[in-house]
Write a structure and sequence with these properties.
Aspartate Aminotransferase, domain 1, Aspartate Aminotransferase, domain 2, 14 helices, alpha/beta, globular, homotetramer
Chain lengths: 343, 343, 343, 343
């Protein structure tokens, strides 16, 4: 039974585990004030290569990071704009609302936001009977595997600038985005164009952990208070630090993401060869296809994956590859599917 | 430089790291729905050995656990009673209030609550102009290293029962409490006497992670919603599961805590021999002593520890031992202190 | 300059002001525990004429009432379903989200919800990564002036019962609904079919104040705590009590609402005679029509009203009548409009 | 039966009711954007007579005002310092905590705060494991009837300035404070020394309503959003405007408060003559005395008042006078007490 269910099925990449073993008997101060966290911060800053300083905060997971950022940045009557497909809208059990903030939804264009939709929301919120739109939340790669081009992100950044909106990028799969075919964004571009973004570790080889990069100076103060208050401050913060040290050594972050994309691309090409219909257009490590329900049932005997959009006769399924996915798993899956399809 | 700063200075006990390495290439489902979490749950249930079922939820840390529990259990106008020294009162950056709930403080008696103080709070809160006291929060071992006896916990449990209050035990250092000299409580007793409690991993050998035990049936429903909403649900939940499997195999949980206590006891006895004044009476792995500030300054050249209560000429310091503290570290510390004291 | 801007432009109906004057020198206990509030409660219970007891709570305004109800009823991870046009969704400055709860929107059918949309939401929220839909919010009359029939409300009530959802009716304009042409609901029906609803005073002749009727026993306890905590408990609660005593004496509540509807109906018929296009179909005291922008500009010289939906060449305007609107105001408006239209 | 229970037992002063009757048929725009509110704002600004602009916002009650101010001003991890006796600490059903903020208590010195206690709190809150003290809440007159002198308020203002704390005065009984014997503060002084304060109407002759004065420019933006979101925006805001117009015409505000104080002072002197023991030292319209419980029981046959501090044999009672209290009521009470005491 091989699982294409997600990109967080295995504990962690060997380099991560090796690093933890290496420092197993070392004593470190707690709460992220250790030298490993400090060093990891430097490696990430170097990767971003900006002339002005950015803050880097290591957090434990995506929902926690999104909740802390939004809780920290917004005042009570301010709201965040997201696509209907945005992770904060549906899949975080109301975490944003629990922090007191409305999520204003705009249509999803294959997971992405259009600048015009942002402007429209701003124009609709005119007085004190409505919330004040103050932040734009996007994810890159998006929840459906698509990525923003430099032109697209620049356009969104501009509209945010015009309307005094904070731009925040959920980078749970930022590695996948930055190493995708067709990507023309660098991590430096993202730091230039946004106010804050996070670099996902959980879905790219770590045990857990995300690195939040705060670019906008106004958002930096007291951020550790917000982490602590939201239960996101790990006592052994150095464990996250050690992991990100390893992840940003020898380009491991990019290598792992690239592998996931490459395997996904092979899968995509072979599915195309089989004339399978795609449910969404993705250039990253999530591929969405439509299959008859009886075919899905037969595949589930040998593979694990998520049924994304259930229909009466056919459904969309999601196939996720990761840093850990062997090409053989894809080959076998394709062979089995081919057999089922009688091709 | 040896650190007595806390009991979470080292990554994790060897058994924990070995378990993670052992399962490094295994695929698991996410969010705590894996077989390791399930097995760890069984091991903890077996340890508790209760005839009725308890729920076990694996969480990432103490503040997160406290916040989730209180947010889940209380209605908006309900409040939690804690000692002034209680962790939720001062050291969680307002996490409980951020969830909307007042922390009503009562005097600390060497870190512990007295039943009479609970009754007094209940009697003072008479109408709708005041919050409704609904939960009692205690920690065992307490923040100052003391422990509850079975008689004391039974008395608190009774007063909670009389006034329809939920009793919750913060067990960040439950291992230390249960293996302390003078302890007469078992983990089964705690399950009999309380509504929920957590078994601390972070301060007893894991990378991170606490096991919340929900005894009271009324509090079980939708608990996973509360975990998710508060950002406490780890994608790779199986990592916590694997750690607690190891911790509750071959009594590792108790062995590690016992070691920490034993080393602390040696330290305590030798400090007593040196006629050092104790700031608090502790039978667990935290020892608090008063020293002249110039002596503290000299000790800090070679040791790391927390200054707990700063005075102009003398201060209280906290010395914490752990599962990882070698007896040699204590011997050396005592010798150095003796030399400084010219004894 | 006559204002059709809303139904809360005048201080209060004469009977209300007279009642206040009558009791001006009387001393009363505070916080709604006075005899006037008690008597008003009895009058409302009598009006409802149910064999089981209902609680009646006097609140200060619609947003406050909605916020208190939802905060009181829902647990943190539970959400409320509303039409996109629902007052709580857009026009309460995020009050519901500020209390921690997501508003799940479904399509508006002329301001009303369809049972099938409720079922769909329930089916979509399957696990702990999503909020739990637990309440349905409807308004009657709706924000666009339409009303629910007994069959429609019964169908919604049934679907709520099936899915264990609390049904709450925002009755800011309940008087208008119950006295509208085509209405077949009684206040007793509403009490039979819902868990709680409020009887609006502000938009039907009082200075301020709404009477919340809590039918469902499970929702009654500690409600006064929720009122107080949300800042909704008036020190001089007897002022609200006195007003509702007057409002439910000699059917004043119904007479005032009926007058507003009758004037609106005359307006509607005359607008129909003028072949003016209606923006929404309303049988109550709000009428929505489309007019060319230049016509609107000319009308605004002499009348005040809200531009509901602004277009480049034509817009929808809202004309609201009230208990205080003289028929002459409608006649004059129609004459002026006729002149502008050259008819 | 005469009530000394509180200063909000009667509907409203005649001038207030007359003003409402006068404008009964007038149409006004809603939500406080009317000309009466605007005029009342001007009258209050004139009263304050400051060379820089202040914002004036009309709110519905004390708890609502406190909740809105604190919710508006503080970021999530920031806390407010108050005396243990402060209204926000005990008597608002957790309203402040429900908005997410901790109330840090300091000792009450006859209802007042000492600057040294504020400094101590600031020094104790050193890192991100604790909340950030950011606001100081005081009431004037205090909950026990005492008042701040100009020197005392200046000292608190200075310590707030030093530590970058917002100073907020709850003026539910500001009229009583400003007209008390021994008072040397003007309303202008208060505006000079604080960031925001409110001028209480409810306890000084209005039906309801408080006028919040925002002095600090940084706190002004979006305040109406905070009012609306917290359910504190009255549809018929002009009703509050009309009341404050009347209250700040011909010094009514000061005359009413002065009357309450004068009657209280007569009561105080006569109680002193009777050698009754005072529970607290008050120069305003609340007097607190200790009496044997059997004497209290007899007084309760003819008078209503609050038992403030219940003891086994004797208790403290609170006697409150108001703008509406006739001197005769005091005389009669004293005569009756004298008779009971056999003096």
């Amino acid at each position: 039974m091989y699982s294409f269910r997600n990109d967080y099925s295995e504990i962690a990449h060997k380099n991560i585990l090796d690093a933890l073993s290496k420092y197993a008997s070392e004593q470190n101060v707690g709460y992220g004030l250790d030298s490993h966290s400090s060093n990891a911060r430097k490696l990430i800053r170097k990767q971003i290569d900006r002339d002005i300083d950015v803050d880097v905060r290591f957090l434990i997971g995506g929902t926690s990071c999104n909740k802390i950022v939004i809780s920290h940045v917004l005042r009570p009557f301010e709201a965040v704009i997201a696509a209907t497909t945005g992770h904060i809208n549906v899949h975080e059990a109301g975490a944003i609302e629990a922090s007191g903030h409305k999520v204003i939804t705009v249509p999803s264009h294959n997971g992405k936001l259009l600048p015009a939709d942002i402007t429209k929301v701003v124009h609709e919120h005119v007085d004190e009977h409505m919330v004040v739109p103050k932040m734009v939340y996007i994810s890159n790669a998006t929840e459906t595997g698509s990525i923003y081009t430099k032109a697209e992100l620049t356009a969104i950044s501009k509209v945010c600038h015009v309307h005094n909106l904070i731009l925040y990028v959920d980078g749970a799969r930022l590695g996948a985005a930055l190493t995708a075919i067709g990507n023309d964004l660098t991590i430096n571009d993202i730091a230039q164009l946004t106010d804050l973004f996070y670099i996902g570790g959980t879905k790219n080889g770590t045990l857990f952990g995300e690195a939040l990069v705060i670019v906008n100076d106004d958002l930096k103060n007291n951020f550790r208070h917000s982490i602590k208050q939201n239960g996101g401050m790990l006592a052994k913060g150095f464990i996250t630090g050690i992991q990100f040290e390893a992840l940003f050594t020898d380009d491991l972050f990019f290598k792992l993401a690239k592998h996931a994309n490459e395997v996904a691309n092979i899968l995509k090409n072979k599915l195309t060869d089989l004339n399978v219909e795609f449910f969404a257009s993705s250039s990253t490590n999530q591929q969405f296809i439509n299959l008859d329900n009886n075919i899905i049932t037969r595949l589930l005997e040998k593979y694990d994956f998520e049924i994304w959009n259930k229909g009466n006769t056919s459904s969309a399924i999601r196939l996720v590859t990761s840093w850990a996915t062997p090409i053989e798993a894809v080959d076998e899956f394709i062979n089995d599917l081919k057999a089922i399809l009688n091709k």
